[in-house]
Structure formats: C-alpha cells, structure tokens
Amino acid sequence: MDQPFWKTKALAEMSRQEWESLCDGCGRCCLNKLEDEDTGRFVYTRAACKLLDLGTCRCRDYVNRAKKVPDCVSLTPKNVSELGWLPESCAYRRLDEGRGLAWWHPLVSGNPETVREAGISVHDEAYTEVGITIDELVDHIWKLPKAKRKKSV
Fold first, then answer.
1. Distance between CA atoms of 128 and 148, rounded to whole angstroms?
2. Which residue has the higher pLDDT, 146 or 101?
3. CA gap 95, 114 in Å, rounded
4. How many CB atoms lie within 10 A of CB 13?
5. Residue 151 lies in a domain
6. Is 153 inside any structural domain?
7. Distance CA 64, CA 40 (A)
8. What are the pLDDT digits (tens) for 68-78?
9. Which of 93, 122, 124, 126 is 20 to 30 Å from 51 at the Cα level?
C-alpha cells in the first residue's frame, strides 16, 4: 500500500495542494503572540487576527491577507523551522521536526471535526482582536491546551 504524501515527501517537495492540505484549520497560528524579551519564548493570547473566521478557524481573505494584515506571515518550507512561535501542534512544525501528523489531523482521521474534538481548535476559545491594543494583549494571555487523547472506538 502506498504511503501518504506527508510520509514520503519533504515539505519543499510538496505540491501547492499538498502543502495547503497540511493546515488543520485549528487557528492557533492566527492568535496574537507575545515574545518574552528575557527568554525568547512565545506566549499566545486569546485575541485572534481580525481576519480569522472563528466559526471555521480559517482566514476570511486568505489570498489578500498580507495586504490587509501587514504582519501576517506566510508559511513556506524555508521558514517553518525559523518560526519559533508556531504551535507544537502545527502540522508544518511537526513534519519539519520529523514527528508526523497527530491522530486528530484531518488527513489522518478523515474528519475535520477531530481538530475540535481533540481540543486543538481555537473555535470556542478565541475572540477577534479589534479594539485590543498591543499593550493590552498581556491581559489576554492563554496557555494553549494539549490535545486530548484519541477516543477509543
């Protein structure tokens, strides 16, 4: 039986369609993050980018996001390993680190709802950043939860 593309290809070898399918739609990368100046570690906030659709956890204007949100970072095979703020649960980061996809990833489970079932999605946790200043973000810090265990069948 053939192996799935994410097990046989490096990130840089993937087609555009394969690359895009790695996004699980959790929305975590669209949360505002703060970097601790002393440690260099990143903390997440519940305040999400104004373009994040909190119902679908997808960008409302993916094609034009960089024009509308100048500090939006486009993930590429070249920059994934340099982005220390990518969540540990992120498929791009996991594959870059040689960890494989998690059980709840839609490409593994066959079901996009497993992202929510595992508690990875920001769907019920985040809110849009409109009206929150950079200085106020510290009041919105949130420790990202770990994924729940796979339910036994």
1. 25
2. 101
3. 19
4. 11
5. no
6. no
7. 30
8. 998 999 999 99
9. 93
149 lies in some domain: no
Calculate the CA dihedral of residues 81, 82, 87, 92 and round it to 10 degrees: -30
Residue 94 — φ and ψ, nearest 5°?
-55, -45
In a domain, residue 147? The reply is no
DSSP 78-141: TTGGG-TTS-TT-HHHHHHTT----TTSHHHHS-TTHHHHTT---TTT-EE-TT--GGGGGGGE
Tokens standing for residue 55: 């119902």
Structure tokens at 132: 């929150």
- Structural domain of residue 41, as residue ranges? 5-142
Around 114, how many Cα atoms within 13 Å sit in the side-chain half-sphere? 15
pLDDT tens, position by position, 44-88? 999 999 999 999 999 999 999 999 998 999 999 999 999 999 999
d(C-alpha 28, C-alpha 120), whole Å: 8
Specify the number of domains making up the chain. Answer: 1
Residue 57 CA to residue 119 CA, distance in Å, equals 13
DSSP assignment letter at 14: S
Query: What is the pLDDT at residue 53?
Result: 94
